[in-house]
Amino acid sequence: MKNCLLHLSLALISLPTMLFADIVYQGKRVQEWPAEAMPTFDNSRGAQTHALMKTTATQTKSHYAAPKGKFYSLTLLVDFSDKVAPVSTSDIEDWLNKEGFNKDGCNGSVRDYYLDVSNGQLDIVNEVYGWYRAKHPKSWYESTDRFEGGNKYKGSDILMQEVFDYFDPQVDFSRYDNDKDGTTEAINIVYAGAGQEWGQGLWPHSGWSSEKRDGVRLTHHQMTDMPGKFSIYVFVHESGHMIFGWPDLYWYGDYCTMGNRASDNNPVAINDFYRADQGWIPFVDITSEDVSRETTKPGEVCYRYKNPARPDKEGLVWSYVRNSGRNKVLKGSGLLMQHYDFAFKDGNTSADSLTLRIVHANSAGKSSDKEAKQWPDPGSTANTFFKSGSYSNFSDDSYPAIRWYDGSKTGLKITDIGVPGDSLTFCIGGNCPAELESSSSLAESSSSSSKPESSSSVSSSSNQEKPTAITRNIQKTRPGKPGNMIFNALGKPVGQRTEFGTLPNLPKGVYLEIEK
């Protein structure tokens, strides 16, 4: 055991850039907020959602807090006699808010990051005050020797109280209660200098307080260091804890910013399961009875296959992830599959009981798919992704290690996974429907054997520019353009999309959709 602790200590010293920030509740480190402290957000009361929506959000109830629209966040700056402010207040404002911010190689500002991953549905605007000079040197707050009671973050609690007291006459804290429920959602403290020792002092973390000012409770806050060189990972990651309540994803890898610290300047996107849970992209729900051919673009939708015995708790999800843009640091592209189970209340606390874990494509035929290391490994590998070649299929037979947590088989079958490109194709259900060339060619062949029943048949639409053939279980597809006509394989109209882009109730089969 002593050897294990020694190895861990060496890892902490030698790999500081890979370390996690923390969630700290009542003086103790936790992997996930306890139920009584979990962030919440009521969009019906305060969200300003007009003028921001770029995609249809189909998720109506999220597992985590899910704010939308313009969202105001407060950032308070503090420096010390032994570590003076390394940048100006206007520099901080740019770092957090400026479109296209690129100092020190950053890929945009913190605001840019969340606009990107939310498809424009969440616009976090940070309002900045400072700098305040702390009462003691930075080293005083970082030391744990002078504080009793085992709270290693006591120094940060004292600094937080100081900062709130100093800025109270200048700041209306109620402005940052975005949903008007009596609780602020986002108060950030940025301090001069770098965090020194993991798990104590001023190490970056998301914290909790019982402060009440301007008629609102200041429950959730976060601390981020400012060593003088700009990067956005820490602020983005801590915002994930503070605003949404996302846990630290240990034993997960580089595939989400709530996982490893893969890139400081261009943090990996929030994983597509969390994005769909927020309503930023749609879920496409699949059952064991479905047979379809799917084509999807990177980050477009998240496919979800629920455990029929525990549909509200456990399931498998997958989406097309490509190593470009926010995910440029990842070492591969393809379908990324994840296994979630919300019955585990403490987040990712052990390799055997993970709220969210990666299903590795290269675990085919193996009896185990358990990660051996918490961090910084696993990172990312090309063979984690399902794609054409060695890992082009998924089933219970080919992946004996992937079962529901009660040990039962999933019943999921995915085959014919294609080559990653601008889009990726795959089939669900084990019997891949034949792909049709175009709606106009089908219409021409069908018109010779069957007269369409109305003037709005496929043949009358065959002169439209670039008609689209859709060959999938059409009841499971994502929303499309309202009014698009749907035809069966004989070229007969069977309905059209509603004003919301949803499809009529159709039996399973191959259908064509003519885009307006």
Question: Would you mind describing this structure in some detail?
Answer:
The chain contains ten helices and 20 strands. With 516 residues, it is of the alpha/beta class. The strands form five sheets. It has a seven-stranded mixed β-sheet with strand order 2-1-6-9-5-3-4, sandwiched between helices. Strands 10-12-13-14-15 form a five-stranded mixed β-sheet, with helices on one face. The protein is globular, with a radius of gyration of 25 Å.
Compact overview of the structure:
The protein has 516 residues and is α/β, with parallel strands linked by helices. Helix content is 16%, strand content 20%.
List keywords for this structure.
20% strand; single chain; 10 helices; 516 residues; disordered N terminus; alpha/beta; 20 strands; globular
In whole angstroms, the N-to-C terminal distance is 67 Å
- Order of strands across the widest beta sheet? 2-1-6-9-5-3-4
State mean pLDDT (0 to 100 scale). 81
The share of residues in helices is 10-25%
Rg over alpha carbons: 25 Å
- Name the helix and strand elements from N-terminus to C-terminus, one letter apiece: HEEHEHHEHHEEEEEHHEEEEEEEEHHEEE
Biggest beta sheet attributes: 7 strands, mixed
Characterize the overall form.
Answer: globular
- Compute the number of helices: 10
Q: Which ranges are low-confidence, i.e. pLDDT below 50, for 5 or more consecutive residues? A: 1-19, 45-58, 436-476
Give a count of the beta strands, DSSP E runs of length 2 or more.
Answer: 20
Question: Structural class per helix/strand content?
Answer: alpha/beta
How much strand? 15-25%
